[in-house]
Amino acid sequence: MSIQIKRVYEPPGKSDGKRILVDRIWPRGLTKEQASIFIWMKEIAPSHELRKWFAHKPENYETFKQNYLQELQHAEARKLLDQIKEWSETDAVTLVYGAKDEKMNQAVILKEVIEGM
């Protein structure tokens, strides 16, 4: 299994494989060509309410993580997680996100969940 995470604003690399955007909102200032996205899975991103509440404040991260893990228990999210895992078994997969914080974001959580499946 090969899953990486990367900011969508970083240039795409040959080792990225399938680049999956895991944000609910398209990243500002990027065209589809620049982002080089294989698929945009906005349905697997945190809900608008949770995203707004989190506001990328470090003190909110642990609660954000627990609430996001609950959101990922829904059937639709499980199907998407299964799909990403399946792709990662035969190809490199890179979960791309727009947040500035490289350690506290939804892509980090998704990678942990998928690798633990």
Automatic annotation (TrEMBL):
Pfam families given in the database record: DUF488-N3i
InterPro entries: YeaO-like
PANTHER family with a match to the protein in the record: CYTOPLASMIC PROTEIN, CYTOPLASMIC PROTEIN-RELATED
Name this protein carries in UniProt: DUF488 domain-containing protein
Source organism of this protein record: Paenibacillus albilobatus
Lineage: Bacteria, Bacillati, Bacillota, Bacilli, Bacillales
